[in-house]
Amino acid sequence: MDNTRISKKFVYLFIMAVFAGFIFVGNTCQAKQEFIVGFDAEFPPYGYMDENGEYTGFDLDLAAEVCKRNGWTLVKRPISWNTKDSELESGAISCIWNGFTMNGREKQYTWSTPYVDNSQVVITRNDSGIKELKDLSGKILAVQTDSSALAALEGEDATDENKALAQSLKELQQVEDYNSAFMNLESGMVDAIAMDIGVAAYQLSSKSDIFIMLDEKLSSEEYGIGFKLGNTELRDKVQLTLLDMLEDGTFDSIVKKWGLGDSACLSLEDTTYIDGGRVPSPGSNGVDNQDNTDNNLEDTDTQDNVKSSAPKAGKMSIAQIVKQLSTGLAATVGIFVLTLLFSMPLGLVVAAARMSKYKIPQWIAKIYISILRGTPLMLQLIVVFFAPYYVFKISTPYAYRFYAVIIGFSLNYSAYFAEIYRSGIQSIPQGQREAAQIMGYNRGQTFFRIIFPQMVKRVLPPVTNEVITLVKDTSLAFALSYAEMFTLAKQVAAAQKSLVPLFVAGVFYYIFNFIVALLMERIEKRLDYYK
To answer: Model confidence over 155-176: pLDDT tens digits?
Structure first.
């Protein structure tokens, strides 16, 4: 009777979740046009999280003004840089607007004209003894994965000098983000790091007593806005709006706000895109284009003022950091609870198929378990999220990102729970089944009244281990750009140029795991009467 009630509750919860999903999708379809900007939230000053928990930056300010003038709703969507192409191709984002280097990627995207001149520079410690690029020989240099710095050293268009420099290194190490690069440099794990000059300047603003920037540059390139290949209509609308902003001085104001006067390069003189298309002409407002460009970008006095007016992220107290991460904690708890809610009963079904006397369900369960235990969870999450588009050409709403996280985690953990359940069930002596049969119990009664209670007691310790592992694995949701606690901690750490948010997140995880372990221990004690 109790088992029937539990099953009904699961069914009701599932129906409610599906119904809520339909309501969300319906509301999304009725909303006005969204302009979804994909950006790396650990890339100040172009895009990052400020002390108020808001995403801000030079590129996001430009995007906000473009949306305002077109009547669009701006959606700021932090993305994992490694999956940016899939996000754009599947329609999850409208563009990549985040200090996105055009050089070397000319044919991969539909580009705006360049709006920032950028350089790749090398940062090292003051006491490293490295003063020139040639001093890097035999040293360890860190760069971000799929970054312009990496392309400048090993890409097809890398200069012979840079290729020789890369060959002379002891190791060219790739890291997840720029904050990780600075952590490696500060701890002495690497000798130098290479990155965009804008990001380097932002980081050095508070650490100039520790690090120095070499005068020599690895390369120079240009930033543009990357749209899905062929999406010229949206590109032209954004381009025309930017040029209007340049004419009326709004672009220059945003440049001044962020202190990028030395590198901003948007120009009315650019009349042809990289792909050969014609740049739309803004409406004439009586301003001489050349003079306007000169006033925007060439005035030395203005540039000096710009440098001093760049906004700096305010230092956050521990209490503020805790408050910021608490929003991500709710997402982490949600992933944890829903994963257990679906994976534990699903694991029982898979275990039953695995022990079936029929070969077909037995082999299906074996293959299922083999794939889900034998491949990385992060890969499984990516497959679940992008498969509807790449396999079935179905564009999914943003809400599906959360559903994909839950589906991916539930499928993965059900495979582990299935094997734990199977070992527990098979550990029950066969004599108990035979005795139950003699007493007149059918197979269902034998399982749920005799085998199942003993199995629960025996598998509780390994199940507890899996549950604790799940708490930590929730951080892998970042692969789908779902903002759980650890993702937020990395974003805050990048903006604050500090490791404190990561340590605070570690304390959160420890407390969470401590509570989970305590609850599981109490459950285990309650089952001691089965001894």
So the answer is: 888 899 999 999 999 999 988 7
Which residues does 487 contact at the CB level (< 8 Å), separation at least 6? Answer: 78, 328, 475, 477, 478
Q: How many CB atoms lie within 10 A of CB 448?
A: 14
DSSP letters, 486-504, are HHHHHHHHHHHT-SHHHHH
Choose the CATH number for 117-222 among 3.30.70.20, 3.40.190.10, 3.40.50.880, 3.30.360.10. Answer: 3.40.190.10
Assign 3-class secondary structure to 307-320: HHHCCCCCCCCHHH
Residue for token pair 């606690």: 485
Rounded Cα distance, 68 and 73, in Å: 8
Give which of 159, 204, 152, 157 is closest to 178, Cα–Cα. Answer: 204
CA atoms within 13 A on the CB side of 48: 28
What confidence tens digit (pLDDT) does each residue in 201-215 have? Answer: 877 876 667 899 999
Note the pTM of the prediction, 2 decimals.
0.69
CATH topology of domain 318-530: MetI-like fold (1.10.3720)
Q: What is the CA radius of gyration of the chain?
A: 28
Which residue in this structure is represented by tokens 């990780």? 180
Superfamily of domain 31-114+223-309: Periplasmic binding protein-like II (3.40.190.10)
